[in-house]
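Section 3.1: Structural characterization of target chains.
Under the original work plan, the team committed to producing a structural model for every single-chain target entering the pipeline before any wet-lab resources were allocated. The record below documents one such target. The sequence was received from the expression subgroup and is listed exactly as submitted; it comprises 351 residues.
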Amino acid sequence: MANIDGELRCPGVLWYVCGRSCQEKGRNAVADEIHQVSTTPKQRTMKIGAMAELGENAMGAEAPHGLTPRYRDVQAQAQLAEQIGFDSYWLADHLLYRFPPETPENGCWEAFSFLSALAATTSRITLGSLVACTSFRNPALLAKMADSLDEISDGRFILGLGAGWHKPEYDAFGYPFDHLASRFEEALAIILPLLRGERVTHHGRYYDTDDVVLRPRGPTTAGIPIWIGGKRPRMLELTARYANAWNTVWHKTAEGVKSVYPNMLKACEAVGRDPKTLTLTAGTFARVLAPGEARKEDGPAIQGEPEEVADGLRAFADIGVEHLVVIIEPDGPNGLLGIERFARVLELFDQ
């Protein structure tokens, strides 16, 4: 790929890491260097994940397939994220978006089908749902699907769960939209003991099981890690009572997390849980600017040169966030450009 002066430069991640032309070193040699650096185990102060969008119009205007990510695009994104050193890779669980009149209708790929394929085509990076809607699937089946993903990924799956919120997709697919928190609580009463290896008989208001058990089992027999995303009092209480981690999104700065964390402390106090045993996770947007690229002052993303973005991420770690999930801008062709630019951010963050 030529730059504006006609010099051949490494695209994306190669340029950001080596800062030299491919003519000086050769593409293969540079790529080998990056692979060696990015796959070296590091003790991070905070884990960092990348999140992909599965909906139509999810990729930038330069995308070769229009604006809809195809599976091969998502696979390439996950593999690149793994190569440059991200700790995790996440997919949202939606079926359809309708926000008229601005966005009359956007469809989405089914998240668990894509996660299963990614589990088979990656080897190190943790995969997760952010978050899986418990009312889209029978809770016992959802537990079975999560356990199968645990097997395919060899223990690299985190099950993020939520109650759901977008009524148009419920209406379109025929799912009930009433009593979402109550349905969520009842689903947890089935999902969590199943993943711990228990047999579950449950006859509730919304769900029924009769001596259900997960057999065979994936490698994480003690229970797949459970993240719960929510901000209302009842969801916070359920998080404090049942989850391994609380996920709060989308915060441009660490101050946003600090402002809502007291609500979780109250929930932990109400159920008698030590908040230190509940992992704090968060979500943000980030945009690494290319040389000469203008800032979007009103945008939701941490933005700037790699040093500025790394500092923005570090602020989350400084307040106690243990795992940060980042929606990365810009997308670029095949959704890779933002991930490529992030290589230098990760390198700086680890220093």
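The chain has twelve helices and 13 strands.
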